[in-house]
């Protein structure tokens, strides 16, 4: 059996005041003298009293909780963003419930249902697929406050996100501008229908008159450093191997960098490497890594503010709005040398 829950009546019995007086005192009502409020608060503390949030939520129709769904808790960029979101929500009096889909579509649907059953006031979601959003669109159509943290402008769902297509374009354009004409890519997003980074990469190649070559486009089947290492091994065994590589996240890029350190190609002299997200490890890698910056603070602030406005709107939500942030490229030693 669990420990008994302290009730208002228990505090009333201990202090000799009525339950109504205790309730008012704990809500800091000016109707109760300050001395009485202090005495009742001390008694509540001694009895380890906690307010019944379930009962309060039935009255206010708010649980003061937000659900946050991640695709992968091991992704440093998502972990950093989750921490920032938790702090931003706490400042506004909200608790955060976390769940991870592990890139499983059925698990994503399940955790959304769990959050709804917990009656969270709204959700912030990194969806597994940026295109297959019918299960989230149904929530939005039912006036449920939801904000995506990756976005499709035509999804019909609120979103605040980095413009991944633009970021990949900038990374590839940078490599072209410093003299590279054979640029490989390590990106598994296409398999999930997340095409933005591949499209940005291809757009930069097309504008420069460089044909797309599928032989130097590798699907890592994951997002880890180890997957990046193995993908770089595949790229560098091609007969006409690339002189530069764009990786869809920094973990993959660090794996590619490690492969070069172990097998001989000098970075950036023999092969330049650019990542995405600008995680802390990128700056402090053995060869500091050029990376597209993921503006955690900006995404967090705008996403939380949008979610708060949806919650405040009540039963009739405003038209969906998608905010896409143009990312900066942070150039470091892994691509600094011109050819």
UniProtKB/TrEMBL annotation:
Q: Does the keyword Transcription apply?
A: yes
Q: Which SUPFAM superfamilies match?
A: lambda repressor-like DNA-binding domains (SSF47413), Periplasmic binding protein-like I (SSF53822)
CDD domains found in the cross-reference section: HTH_LacI, PBP1_LacI_sugar_binding-like
Matching InterPro entries, A to Z? HTH_LacI (IPR000843), LacI/GalR-like_sensor (IPR046335), Lambda_DNA-bd_dom_sf (IPR010982), Peripla_BP_I (IPR028082)
Which keywords describe this protein according to UniProt? DNA-binding, Transcription, Transcription regulation
Superkingdom of the source? Bacteria
- Domain HTH lacI-type per the UniProt entry, residue ranges: 6-60
Tell me which PANTHER family the record gives: HTH-TYPE TRANSCRIPTIONAL REGULATOR GALS, LACI-RELATED TRANSCRIPTIONAL REPRESSOR
Q: What is this protein called?
A: LacI family transcriptional regulator
Q: What is the lineage of its organism?
A: Bacteria, Pseudomonadati, Pseudomonadota, Alphaproteobacteria, Hyphomicrobiales
């Amino acid at each position: 059996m669990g420990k008994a829950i302290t009730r208002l009546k228990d505090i009333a019995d201990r202090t000799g005041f009525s339950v109504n007086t205790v309730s008012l005192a704990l809500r800091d009502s000016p109707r109760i003298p300050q001395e009485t409020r202090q005495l009742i608060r001390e008694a509540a503390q001694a009895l380890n009293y906690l307010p019944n949030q379930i009962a309060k939520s039935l009255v206010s129709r708010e649980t003061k909780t937000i659900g946050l769904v991640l695709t992968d808790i091991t992704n440093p960029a998502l972990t950093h963003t989750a921490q920032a979101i938790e702090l931003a929500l706490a400042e506004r009096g909200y608790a955060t419930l976390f769940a991870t889909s592990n890139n499983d579509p059925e698990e994503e649907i399940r955790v959304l249902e769990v959050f709804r059953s917990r009656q969270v006031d709204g959700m912030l979601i990194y969806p597994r697929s940026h295109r297959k959003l019918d299960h989230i669109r149904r929530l939005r159509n039912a006036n449920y406050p939801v904000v995506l943290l990756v976005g499709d402008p035509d999804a019909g769902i609120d979103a605040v996100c980095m413009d991944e297509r633009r970021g990949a374009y900038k990374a590839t354009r940078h490599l072209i501008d410093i003299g590279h004409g054979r640029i490989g890519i390590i990106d598994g997003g296409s398999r999930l229908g997340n095409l933005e980074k591949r499209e940005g990469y291809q757009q930069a190649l097309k504008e420069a008159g460089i044909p797309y070559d599928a032989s130097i486009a590798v699907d890592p089947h994951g997002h880890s450093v180890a997957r990046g290492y193995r993908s770089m091994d595949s790229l560098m065994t091609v007969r006409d191997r690339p002189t530069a590589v764009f990786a869809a996240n920094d973990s993959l890029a660090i794996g590619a960098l490690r492969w070069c350190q172990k097998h001989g190609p000098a970075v950036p002299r023999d092969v330049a490497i650019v990542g995405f997200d600008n995680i802390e490890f990128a700056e402090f890698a053995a060869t500091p890594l050029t990376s597209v910056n993921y503006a955690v603070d900006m995404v967090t602030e705008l996403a939380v503010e949008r979610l708060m406005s949806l919650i405040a709107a009540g039963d009739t939500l405003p038209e969906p709005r998608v905010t896409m942030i143009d990312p900066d490229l942070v150039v470091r030693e892994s691509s600094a040398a011109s050819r």
